[in-house]
Design brief:
About 20% of the residues lie in helices and about 35% in strands. It is an alpha+beta fold. Strand 3 and strand 4 (about 70-75) form a beta hairpin. The longest helix is centred in the N-terminal third of the chain and has 12 residues, at about 15-30. Keywords: Stress response. Pfam families: HSP20. Belongs to the small heat shock protein (HSP20) family.
């Protein structure tokens, strides 16, 4: 794995420490289990699909806190020991964290056929959306502004 040195960024840029921390965290995270997809469904809609075969709804937790989404699975271990000849289906506990961009929120979550689907959407508040300003060339509107 390649590592990056962000110290030059810290020396010359103010307020970008959070971005550098995101890159640093992404390099350290083991994100291989359980496998997942992140899909762009449409312009401002996203879907995270996570393969959670063997987990019940009650064993999976989806939490948002600030701009972070945390998905975790905790297997209930009250089963008697089993004698596997081949054990290829993992069923270990997991925890995944995703950093959400501004104005991205969870629309819903569904568990279907061993796949956890989390729907996300970016909804920019009206006050932050671009507005077209009409240019009025009448003398009356100019006089109103001067007075």
């Amino acid at each position: 794995m390649r590592t990056y040195d962000f110290s030059p960024l810290y020396r010359s840029a103010i307020g970008f420490d959070r971005l550098a921390q995101l890159f640093d965290d992404a390099q350290r995270t083991d994100s291989s289990y359980p496998p997942y997809n992140i899909e762009l469904v449409s312009d401002d809609k996203y879907r995270i699909t996570m393969a959670v075969a063997g987990f019940e709804r009650s064993e999976i937790e989806v939490i948002t806190e600030g701009d972070a989404l945390k998905i975790s699975g905790r297997k209930e271990r009250d089963e008697a020991p089993r004698n596997f000849l081949h054990h290829g289906i993992a069923s270990r506990d997991f925890e995944h964290s995703f950093q959400l961009a501004e104005h991205v929120h969870i629309v819903g979550a569904k568990l279907d056929n061993g796949l956890l689907n989390i729907e996300l959407a970016r909804e920019i508040p009206e006050a932050l959306k671009p507005r077209r300003i009409l240019i009025d060339d009448s003398k009356e509107s100019v006089q109103k502004l001067v007075a």
